[in-house]
Automatic annotation (TrEMBL):
It comes from Genlisea aurea. InterPro entries: PH-like_dom_sf, PH_domain. Residues 57-173 form the PH domain. PROSITE patterns: PH_DOMAIN. This is PH domain-containing protein. Pfam families: PH.
Amino acid sequence: MFNFKALPWKPDAATTQRKDVVCSVDVEALHSEISDLEDRESHYKAQLEHVNEILRSSRLSGYLFLRTRWEALPGETPPIDDSEVHDWVQRFVVIQGSYIYLYTSATDLSPRDYTVLSEAIQVGPLPSLTRHEDGETLYCFYILTKAGLRYECSSTSKMQIDSWVAALEKECKFGRP
């Protein structure tokens, strides 16, 4: 019934060599993939450790919508009214030590920008805005620096804005009028 003569008992040299080549290519691809995964894992661990450190050592941190403006210097004409311009970008903002750090996201290892708290000369609320896309209210505040740079910050949570204003007034030794 079975014909054993049709079954090869010894692999020929060409078949063995081809299998070895395919196997070594596959093994190299797997080594490369494992190396890439290990690199990504170490990067994610570094991000996680950084976020953990920020959360443990910061006085206040969280996502805010942010935009920057320049105040008119004495004798300059006031800037144009751009209150209708919606150029808010979301940033992860951190008060840590004597700095305010601005990160693109919480997992970034280095800040996109920062300001020294001692450079802030004024902090206060701004009128709330309504987003046209979804009708949601944005509660706002600002931080004005000695150089005339004004950070305008907003959030959909009034409680979050009140916390930020209170923390900044305390850190910068401001009192509300």
